[in-house]
Specification:
Layout: E1 2-7, H1 10-23, E2 28-32, H2 37-42, E3 51-55, H3 64-76, E4 80-85, H4 91-99, E5 103-106, H5 112-121, H6 125-138, H7 146-154, H8 160-171, H9 178-201, E6 203-207, E7 210-216, H10 224-235, E8 239-244, E9 246-252, H11 258-264, E10 268-269, E11 273-278, H12 282-289, H13 294-308
Parallel strand pairs: 1-2, 1-3, 3-4, 4-5, 7-8
Antiparallel strand pairs: 6-7, 8-9, 9-11, 10-11
Length: 311
């Protein structure tokens, strides 16, 4: 049995597509977020001859122990685990995962699809194109226009069936057709409305010498980096805090290492792009249900302020 456990964004699904091309068949796809990786892995039942491929997902300080416990049991029971990731890992995590018997490929110089391509798809022009498009967007270098199209196609629906469909479609080399163009057109219409709202409702604050812009993002569209970049440019901010129900995304223009902030709050990521899970107290959750977000955003920012102002 071949199982792919991967992130929900373009990089994760592109990684799954390259693996599918390499293996010809994948039996099960699981799409998840870094902060839920431990629970996803704990639910996998492998009886025999089971291979698991983990892509574009890194541990964090809050779940590394649980992940290690699970992967050790899986490997002891004969499961083979390959793990491809481009996020920054603590050296102790690398050592522990390798010692657990996981075949880890961790490289911050490229995206996860790029790592998968190097190990499983090398020499295949379609896999190379998929990886190049994913890296263009995920590394924020924009050197392949297809990445922007595919990212919107991937994010068009949040269902497991849709993500599986996209991974299989890309694996067959179908990267641009009428369905993709239609999804991109509709996604752009939604994005423009979201970005306009972000400009109107985004706030800015100077916190201990750091100019921070913040915004509550209620929609699930994969445009967090677009929103953050727009707001940092519009308000000339050093970093952006995008608060969501249950999680926070951080982006930086280089002055602030947001991974260090995320680490202290139980998350991780990259120096310029990181995040962490955040479960607000029940009064804020109730207010969010009736579309009152200001108290939650204020509480969210208080957590960021505590870390930013540490001596």
């Amino acid at each position: 049995m071949r199982i792919v456990v991967t992130h929900t964004d373009l990089d994760g699904i592109a990684s799954a597509a390259i693996i599918t091309r390499s293996l010809s068949k994948v039996d099960k796809y699981v799409f998840t977020q870094p902060h839920t990786l431990h629970s996803v892995l704990s639910r996998i039942k492998c009886l025999e001859d089971c291979d698991i491929y983990i892509c574009d997902l890194s541990p964090n300080h809050s779940n590394i122990s649980s992940i290690l416990s699970t992967v050790r049991k899986l490997v002891e029971n004969g499961t083979k685990i390959w793990w491809f990731d481009h996020h920054v890992w603590e050296p102790s995590w690398v050592e522990s995962v390798l010692s657990a018997g996981v075949r880890l490929s961790q490289d911050t110089s490229t995206c996860s699809a790029g790592i998968v391509y190097r190990h499983l798809g090398f020499g295949d022009s379609i896999s190379e194109h998929i990886a190049r498009a994913a890296c263009s967007l995920d590394l924020w270098v924009f050197d392949d226009w297809l990445g922007n199209f595919l990212a919107r196609y991937v994010g068009y629906s949040k269902s497991e069936d849709w993500r599986k469909k996209v991974a299989i479609k890309l694996s067959k080399g179908v990267m641009l057709d009428e369905e993709v163009l239609k999804a991109v057109e509709e996604s752009m219409d939604r994005e423009l409305k979201i970005l306009s709202e972000a400009i109107r409702k985004g706030g800015v604050s100077d916190i201990c010498g750091i100019r921070v812009v913040y915004y509550y993002k209620s929609v699930k569209d994969h445009i967090t980096s677009y929103v953050a970049t727009l707001l940092m440019s519009r308000f000339n901010a050093d970093m952006a805090v995008i608060c969501r129900r249950g999680s926070v995304s951080l982006r930086s223009r280089g002055k602030v290492d947001v991974r260090e902030i995320a680490k202290k709050l139980g998350g991780g990521g990259h120096p310029n792009a990181a995040g962490f899970s955040l479960r607000p107290p029940w009064p804020y959750r109730v207010l969010l249900l009736i579309n009152i977000s200001r108290p939650y955003v204020k509480w969210c920012m208080s957590r960021i302020k505590t870390v930013l102002c540490e001596k």
